[in-house]
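User: For documentation purposes, I need each entry recorded in a consistent format: the amino acid sequence on its own, followed directly by the corresponding structure tokens. There are two entries in this batch. Please keep commentary to a minimum and don't merge the entries.

Assistant: Recorded as requested. Entry 1:
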Amino acid sequence: MPEVGTRDGLTAAEVAKRVADGRVNTQTQPSSRSLGDILRENIFTLFNGILTACFVAVLLLGDLRDGFFFGIVVVNALIGIVQEYRAKRVLDRAALLAAPHSRVRRDGQAVTVALEDVVIDDLLVLRPGDQIPADAVVVESTGLSLDESMLTGESDPVFKDEDALLLSGSHVVTGTGLALVTAVGADSYASRLTSEIRKHSLVRSELREATNRILVYLSWVLGPLILVTLVGRVLTYGGFSEVFVDDRWRRALLDAVAAVVGMIPEGLVLLTSLAFGVAAIQLASRKVLVQELAAVEVLARVDVLCLDKTGTLTTGELDLHGIEPLCAPAGEELAEIALAAFGSDEAGNATSGILGSRFRSDRFRVTRRIPFSSATKYSALTMTVDGEESSWVLGAPERVLEAHPDQLARATELAASGLRTLALARAVDPLPAEVHTPLSGTRVEPAELVLLAETLRPEARDTLGYFREQAVRVVVMSGDNPVTVAAIARELQLEGEAVDASTLHTDEQLADALETASVLGRVSPDQKRAAVRLLKERGRTVAMTGDGVNDAMAVKDADLGIAMGTGTAATKAVSRVVLLDDRFDRLPDVLASGRRVIANVERVSNIFLAKTTYGILLALVSAVVLWPFPFLPRQLTLVSTLAIGIPSFFLALAPNKRIYTPGVLGRILRYSVPTGLIAGATAIVAYAPLYRSVPLHEARSVTTVALFCVSLWILCVLTRPLTGARWLLLVAVAAAFVLVCFIPFTASFFEMHVALDTALAWGVLVGAAGAVGVELFYRFAKRRGLVFDRL
């Protein structure tokens, strides 16, 4: 309590002492990640290092035509840096406290101070619209009610009497009061929650995990492979004693670069990022903001969707559903005037606003009001109509109709249907003299039941039906009464039990409830977070929607966090997806985009990994048998661009509705490794009889033709079914390759020295045989269920 022991607040000296002690409301939050960390993680990677070393080697050789591969390193690093820096800025802006100033009482005077100038033991002066700047305890209340929906999930204003706890970040709705500050700065609720929110984490992406695992596998073998390649190149060109005699070291180094570049799937990460990026752009046109690119994949894997009721299934607004009279018809007119009188209270709550918009009269004059209290659960007034005075009570049926069991039973029945029910009664005895006095002992005559209903979002029913068809389980978690939430769920045809989460005190009880319940009411923020954790521990992929601060940590912990556009800044900051126009029916679009991305990236990953496989095989064989490497770096770039890079871009954006099935990495390896071995064997067979019988540049050109033929067929298999557009894609890349080989400028640029002779016929024949081998393997693997049918 303040040291002065009065309600005059702290003195200037007491404030100065607390400031000197550091007991002020300074909001010092660490940045989520530093820019340096982001740059290091995206630039200084193993594969960037290897490809950069190869590029430096190309610079030493003086022919930049062999260094085109380095462009992918630059673009891929830029995409990662921009994406993660954008996420950093969003997280750094996350804050729960938005009010720049607060009113406090000091030296007996109410003064306005900055948010960070509030100190421990300050006496807050609270008015409607004020935000609570620090945790506090009420010392005086006059109808004080707070909106804590963003903190607790309870959509109704919570009335605060003396000694009630106020959490920083909540807002005053009605009434006035004084509150003693008990926690400031980093110790306040808002600061603790903001610190949790700002902790950086990446969405779990199976595609990203599969790609990273592939890169880890490669990192284990690349070191020995590069060493073998370098030694093999030196031995091929005469050993260490002769390789530096003339320019043979240049040829050896160029061979080594070509071998290393062929082993690295440099475009795989880039293409995955591009596929995510294009999906994000398309979703943005539908008012869906994707804050982390990999999030578009995750909803394709989601099998549990946790929803907050208010703001997701409902608009968060109440409407007057109807009035059910409980009195004789002669008294209905006066009862409706009483409702108009309750609605005329400018300092009233949301219920008063609804009544004021539906009931109007100029016949009454209010002579006394008793504001609503969370302790007594009623409000009351005395009014004069045409010279006749009467008193009226409006509040919870269990308090107002306590002495009228029949009418109370009817009110309970209506509440069970999902309607918010209030009882209006005329007071027979005088109203209590004190504001917070219970109504018991005051006789009343029941007049009417006021029925309020939340407005359902028109798209909610169809959207829930869609997820039900897609085998996605929906669980509604709300801070409201479970009976009310269950009624709304039934109206939306959501099956399952309704459980009062306030009765669940352990993780085991909550886990048991999650097995069968589709509705959890009276859920605390900690329980929402625990529910997400428990579902994830059971192997479920969880999406969580929300708009309030009470949802923020559950949204952050979920595999996919989805925020409403009108939600708090904190919740939007930690979400992966934001529905900008608050339309819940946008989620099927996100699901469709995720399915397209995960299926198409799996498809094109096979092409990249096949290239890595044949690159490793060619590097080993040429090193062991001491051949000059069968390709120049630019020739591998030509094959990779036409048979992998350009087609993969189009395939990654193609429509694909295949339902997600776990095991992406296994399926990729089962297809790409065998087909890559076939492609590598094709190149070896084509090169072996030529490299001594014809000039080396011609042997390499013919081997490039053979490798392109088999790579084109790997692509052909993965593009099925062969629609008109896909046939056009295949024909276009084949035609482009032919043109490159026979147009003088491009032929010279890529060192493609081919002529219509026996050597070229040999290369085409071997390439065709390799294509047949790919086709036979695919048919065998599909029959055995080793790979997905790409149809």
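Entry 2:
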Amino acid sequence: MIETADGGRVWLLSGRTSGYALHLTDHGELLHLHWGPRLALADAEALAAQPLPPYWPFESPLDGQEEYVVEGGPRFTRPALSVRTPRARGTEWTFESAAVDGDELRLRFTDAVHRLGLTLHYRMRDDADVVERWATVAHEGAPGDPDLELLRADAAVWTLPLRDGWRLSQLHGRWAAESRLVRAELTPGDKVLGSRRGHTGHQHLPWVALDAEGAATEESGEVYGCALGWSGSWRIAVQHLPDGRVQISGGAGYDDSGLLSLAPGASYTTPVFAGLWSPDGFGGASREWHAWQLARVIPDAERLRPVLFNSWEATGFAISEPQQRALAQRAAALGVELFVVDDGWFGERTHDAAGLGDWTPNPDRFPGGLKPLADEVHALGMRFGIWVEPEMVNPDSALYRAHPEWVQHQSGRRRTEFRNQLVLNLARQDVQEYLWEQVDGLLSSAPVDYVKWDFNRCFTDAGWPGEEYPQKLWIEHVRALYGLLDRLRAAHPSVDFESCSGGGGRIDLGILSRTDQVWTSDNTDPLDRLAIQDGFSQLHPARVMAAWVTDSPNTLLNGRRSSLRFRFVSAMAGVLGVGGDLTRWSEEELAEARGWVELYKAIRPVVQLGAQYRLRPPRGGLSAVQYVHGDDTVVLAHLQAQHHGERPPAVRLRGLDPAAAYRCLDTGAVHRGAVLLHRGLDTGLRGDLDAAVFRFRRLGERPA
């Protein structure tokens, strides 16, 4: 709901439990008023009537007050918008108009010197507390006017209320150790997170959360969160200003070297930078983020994700059609629903230094192409998927030999190789058309149901010789990726897509709006995964979080040995997959795995679509996570290690009705909701790397 007051100069957006208000002054300054609990329109008007802070030497009264900070004029904070032409640099804007279209508010400004149009977009839906913000910058000059260089154009600036201090939460990491949660006091100055790598990156997820004075807990206290929907290089800056105010800006591009050059008539629309206020702690904020993504971001989110088998850890590059058939037969016997052939099926791809870019089946490994294998997989009752990495090329490939100019490179410089790969310049129209023809042809040549789309290489030589404004490739690569995925999904609506980037290197709201799930990390060790999955859940729902059960010991990373029980219960916290070499599993292991797959299918609606409660974080000892969907509750509990004579504590559940009774579907025992909430659940776990699944269903009658 959007309401206006003060002659159309105060705007109030209201969601399910929260509100957002802003105000245009008589001098044309757009000021922030409120972000927090729902307000009445009269409250917003009262806030608008309050004066700006008094004069303070060497400070601007606008700093920390404006809704969207531009470069130029009496401002000293980090600008969200920076432009230049031969005439001038910076912006001096004039308010032009406001428009309300359903749940979207649009505020339009202009700069007469630059002939620039700026539109700020706001959307807040009645059934959610997420505020979606983005901006459109347009060159509104006449033909022949000089181009407008867009140095920086953030999606939004978020302003927090004045408090004594703030604590910042962020997710950091590296390859195989993504999504690690860290919280620390926000000190004065700028805290800048981002990626200069051309993709979202393993190092930081584009999300931050802040709570006043570190007072919020998992289930209580005010939490403000912001998340950016962009799959290329990005920046989020958290500014702790001299007067104690805090503003958060974010958008595409890492620094101010330049985004785009806009000719007259051209425009740029930023990605969405979403914000959320929650009064229910970090857990409440997470559940609101999850619900919003399931309702508004993730395609067909109501469809449950299938149990998959992926061949990579079982075979590496040494794959063949008979070998894949043998794995498929065993996978089908386990109850797997989707069989995915990973790297090595195409071109001369017998190792990681050849074949990328040549997306036709290797004739020695698949003499009849992929269709015979896909047909057999379908006959076994499973769907069929493949791995691709379209944005990359090996120098040892037919594509590169034919088109060496198609890769990102700088004239006269050595072409840097990572993982024996170069990055195709997807900003080029001819490259886009080639990839469309290759992937569309591939999906048309065989009954493919699923595509794992990988991206294993950061940008290093981001040049475009001959292009007048080569910096634009950073933006245009991502735009082209989105366009290609949108085009493929429209042409092949029954095909699902998974985003992968060496594991969790491209996970954000932008890619999630075009894919059905994401590969969370290349680290499949079940203990390491607990921390990765805990961090991931701060923002994203279990419905998109792929997790595999692989072989023990974990030879890829740490050599840790773990039971099949521990591996399955760890992976059941998201979208379950199996990635071990099933031809080496014993009959006892296969029988046990069938039971776990059957159990996962029973709890899948609760895990993938339910409200998630992080009961105990994975910090050693006992950890647990809970899901509630309708009358059903699932608890996954893990015990990392147990000291001698020390009994693991009971796990206190959340999200239950204290006046109701709940039956354990595994034992038949009936538990009172109040007891589970207060006293907790005795898991019975013991020793090292133990785990268990608990299922409860609310009974119709209430206990006396």
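Summary note for entry 2:
The two ends are 42 Å apart (CA to CA).
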